[in-house]
Amino acid sequence: MPDLVNKVGDVLRVSTEYLAARNVYQPRQACELLLSRLLNCKRLEILVRFETRLSGKQLDAMRRGVKRLAAGEPVQYIAGEVEFMGHVFKVDRRALIPRPETELLVEAVLECPGIWQEADPLVADVGTGCGCIAVSIALARPAARCIAFDVAVEALELAAENAHALGALDRIRFARGELSDTADPDSLDAVVANLPYIPSPVLDKLPVHIRNFEPRTALDGGPDGLSVISGAVPDAWFALKPGGLLCLEIGDDQGGRVGTLLGDGEFEEVRVHKDLAGKDRIVTGIKKRS
Length: 290
Prior knowledge:
- Helix content is 40%, strand content 19%.
- The chain contains 13 helices and nine strands.
């Protein structure tokens, strides 16, 4: 950016053009997010602040951010935060960046009436990452107790930081490992999981801001994308109470296969839920009661 450019509107225009020429993903949105972070305002407020002049320090910070964007780094990691279910979560390279589609996973759990009839329902979040699912459920349902599982200790540390910052730490237990390592049989009211589901051969074809920056272990679902999910289904059946809910996020071509996995694994009322784009995104099932 030229030194003479310091008005918000001009900075946004020049930065967007610079990044678009380098094929950066959603360049205007990324620049708006960086500017909103610098100005401590909501992204939409940028539109009414075009005449605001940035200070020298703000311009230097914006230049650094644009440089990182041009190198492919996700804007969420640069800003250090992302909004999810109305809450702001800290994010960095220790865990996957929460996507809007994953909010549907949380909503499916919150809208399942059978869970919330219990006095103190116990919910497991498997592959918790930054903790956005477990923390969002704990905040929305104060009676809930949650266990957040992850195989990566660094992800659990990030999740605990978010739980502490958002006031949910006292109702979430963090456990390193798989569901089968800790959960007792017939002990859980719900298991919710956003597990790796991208086929291994596809990983190197993903956009650079995903494949070069987000944790590969949080993305790699094995040769067909279902290696991790297929192992999680029997583990969930073992840990759930009869009538307990299993809720999984999936790839948009996996609804039929994952639905069959649940049906063959002694789950009933199996349902594939679509996202806002009309694509398969969530599969839910109830552990058979008898």
